[in-house]
UniProtKB/TrEMBL annotation:
This is O-methyltransferase. One of its GO terms (molecular function) is S-adenosylmethionine-dependent methyltransferase activity. InterPro entries: Cation-dep_OMT, SAM-dependent_MTases_sf, SAM_O-MeTrfase. The keyword S-adenosyl-L-methionine applies. It holds the Pfam family Methyltransf_3.
Length: 228
C-alpha cells in the first residue's frame, strides 16, 4: 500500500492524537519544558512520544542503572528516571552549568532527586573517570554529534553485555544519507555508523521517525554478550 507524502503539520497532528490516548498528562514534565523555554534553553529535548519510548524501553529491560550524555533541561532525564526501581540510579552528563541548574530544578520538582545525579563538565572527561565495572543497563546519547564516536566508545565500555545504547538524531531529515550534504553534525553521525559497522561486538539498527520534532531517527545498539 502506497502512502502520499505528508507534512510537518500532519506529523505533529498525528503525535498529538496518539499521545492523547497513550500518554497521561504529567505536571512535572510539562513544567520542565516550560522552565527550560523560559530560561532560553534550545528546543532540543526529545518529543513526548520519544520520551515515552525511552521510558518503556528502560522498563522492558528492567534497567537499574542508566547513563545519559546530554542533560539539557532534564526532560529526557525525567522520562528515563521515572522507569527506575526504588533503588535505581541515573547518571547524566551536562557541559553547561546553566543548563544543569535548570535541569536540577526540574528533576527535584519531579521527585527524582535521590535517583538522578548530574555531573557538570565535558562528558568525555566524566565518562573516562568512571570505572569499567559500572555495569550500566542503558545509555542514551543526545549531545554534540561531532563527538558521537567518542561518546559511543565510552558508553560501550560502561554498559553491560546485553545492555542497550541509544543515539538520538542520526537521520537528520535524511541528510546523513545524502552525499551532497555535509556539516559537523552529519559527519559526526556518518563516522559513528562507520565505527559501528566495523565493530563485531555491537548489533545495531537505525529507525527513522517523524513527529512533532520533524523527520529524524535514532540508533538502537546492543552491546553483544560474550559467546563461549
Amino acid at each position: 500500500m502506497a502512502f502520499t507524502s505528508t507534512s510537518q503539520t500532519d506529523w505533529t497532528r498525528s503525535d498529538i492524537y496518539h499521545n492523547s490516548f497513550l500518554i497521561p498528562p504529567n505536571n512535572a514534565l510539562t513544567a520542565a519544558l516550560k522552565l527550560s523555554e523560559k530560561h532560553g534553553l534550545p528546543p532540543y529535548a526529545v518529543s513526548e512520544a520519544q520520551g515515552k519510548f525511552l521510558n518503556l524501553l528502560a522498563q522492558s529491560i528492567q534497567a537499574r542503572r542508566m547513563l545519559e550524555i546530554g542533560t539539557l533541561g532534564g526532560y529526557s532525564t525525567i522520562w528515563l528516571a521515572n522507569a527506575l526501581p526504588e533503588d535505581g540510579e541515573l547518571l547524566t552528563c551536562e557541559i553547561s552549568k546553566d543548563f544543569a541548574m535548570i535541569a536540577q530544578i526540574n528533576i527535584d520538582n519531579a521527585g527524582l532527586t535521590d535517583k538522578v545525579k548530574i555531573i557538570v563538565g565535558p562528558a568525555i572527561t566524566t565518562l573516562s573517570n568512571i570505572k569499567s565495572n559500572a555495569s550500566f543497563d542503558l545509555a542514551f546519547i543526545d549531545a554534540d554529534k561531532q563527538s558521537n564516536v567518542e561518546y559511543f566508545i565510552q558508553a560501550k565500555r560502561l554498559v553491560r553485555k546485553g545492555g542497550v545504547i541509544i543515539v538520538d538524531n542520526v537521520v537528520r531529515n535524511g541528510r546523513v544519507a545524502d552525499p551532497d550534504q555535509s556539516d559537523s553534525n552529519i559527519d559526526g553521525v556518518r563516522k559513528l555508523l562507520e565505527y559501528i559497522g566495523d565493530d563485531p561486538t555491537i548489533e545495531a539498527t537505525t529507525l527513522g521517525t517523524v513527529g512533532e520534532k520533524g523527520y529524524d531517527g535514532f540508533l538502537y545498539a546492543i552491546n553483544k554478550p560474550n559467546i563461549s
